[in-house]
Specification:
CATH topology: Rossmann fold
CATH class: Alpha Beta
Number of domains: 1
Strand content: 25-35%
Strand order of the largest sheet: 5-4-3-6-7-8
Largest sheet: 6 strands, mixed
Distance between the termini: 18 Å
Number of helices: 7
Radius of gyration: 16 Å
Order of helices and strands: HEEHHEHEEEHEHEH
CATH architecture: 3-Layer(aba) Sandwich
Helix content: 40-55%
Structural class: alpha/beta
Shape: globular
Length: 186
């Protein structure tokens, strides 16, 4: 089994829940995907880093940094950064706070994202894409160009178009539909 198939299996086992749920968007759903149960596990870190790094290279993106809105994006960004170091093609991680700190240096972006870098935005589970758009806006305000967006699980109906309107390609590693269908079979 390759890393992408292993990660899919791990997501189905650890992160997909069937039942009735209210999403952050306010919509209701008969399934919920808590990707953090996978991305924050040791095995998930190994697999997410490998699969996401390979997808970045496959799509011809060449970011210097990877990150997104803190908490969901953090373990994905750090897993990618780790694999990039192993591969000798460094991609550093960063985090975007929901709001700037009110103490210390007052930063909204942590991790040393330089203005002359190239950022790839990441998200764990994308429903509307709005939270990643907040991070996109923060990084653009910071002055760093963005090369694209990567989501581990895409449960949206129009995220590709939302990001295309922003001039950004979207890489979706898995669709929610494929994970839920496998969970229901399983």
């Amino acid at each position: 089994m390759n890393a992408k198939d292993e990660l899919k299996t791990l997501l189905i086992q650890r992160s997909v829940r069937l039942g009735e749920f209210t999403l952050a968007s306010g919509a209701t759903s008969d399934f919920y995907i808590d990707a953090r149960l996978t991305t924050m596990s040791a095995e998930g870190q190994r697999l997410v880093g490998r699969v996401a790094y390979d997808a970045i290279r496959e799509h011809g993106l060449d970011p210097t940094h990877v990150g997104g809105l803190t908490m969901g994006a953090d373990p994905i960004a750090y897993a990618i950064a780790h694999v990039s170091a192993v591969e000798g093609h460094i991609i550093d991680g960063f985090s975007v706070r929901k709001q700037a700190k009110d103490h210390g240096t007052g930063q909204r972006i942590e991790g040393g994202l330089p203005m002359n870098g190239r950022a790839l935005m990441v998200e764990d589970t994308m429903t509307t894409g709005r939270s990643t758009l907040q991070a996109v806006d923060a990084v653009r305000e910071h002055g760093t160009p963005i090369v694209g967006v990567l989501t581990l699980v895409d449960r949206s109906s129009n995220a590709k178009e939302v990001y295309a309107a922003q001039g950004l390609p979207l890489i979706s590693l898995y669709s929610a539909a494929e994970l839920v269908a496998a969970a229901r079979q399983g």
